[in-house]
Structure prediction request, 225 residues.
Amino acid sequence: GNSVTQMEGPVTLSEEAFLTINCTYTATGYPSLFWYVQYPGEGLQLLLKATKADDKGSNKGFEATYRKETTSFHLEKGSVQVSDSAVYFCALTNSGYALNFGKGTSLLVTP
Amino acid sequence: NAGVTQTPKFRILKIGQSMTLQCTQDMNHNYMYWYRQDPGMGLKLIYYSVGAGITDKGEVPNGYNVSRSTTEDFPLRLELAAPSQTSVYFCASSSVGGTTYEQYFGPGTRLTVT
Prediction:
């Protein structure tokens, strides 16, 4: 079956530091990959996505590249802000309806 | 444009009680979903619907029921609440199925069963 593994949190960074959150997956076929973000007290919001190998998703300074050879979709940002503090979820689907989520990685950015 | 709305925001139930979690979307999306999020875990799919009158089980359907009489509404029913159902419940919708379409999430309902 499908599964997503994310690095354990919490991750604590100083403002303007470089961010990497690792995500690897197991899936049959050719899944689409997503990063969702959950701010405190809110629902999940799509941050970025990639639908085929070597695609790069990007949004709000965040990037992730779909690497089929390493089954990875690591999230990166060059300079984090306090407002980026949230929980980040890696997810995939190859069914068209069910999203399989990782456990989430909590990020805290300090001034 | 409200998107996906859920009520209530919080609820405490006693073991054995029943309740319905409400979910409404105003984006005219055909697909709707219910997920639960346990502490420190990702979301797990409970039920989903591909259109009015059509529903199907997800990964963790036991103890829940759903119905979809309109495009807009997708209520989730808990018949006999158990402590294992303590969780945060998220409703989501998407315009179509397929692997490239974004799911839009509501703000969640935090349920405690004691």
In short: Residues 13 and 109 of chain A are 5 Å apart (CA to CA). Chain A has a mean pLDDT of 93. The interface with chain B takes residues 4, 31-32, 36, 41-46, 49, 51, 89, 91, 93-104 of chain A (CB under 8 Å). The two ends of chain A are 41 Å apart (CA to CA).
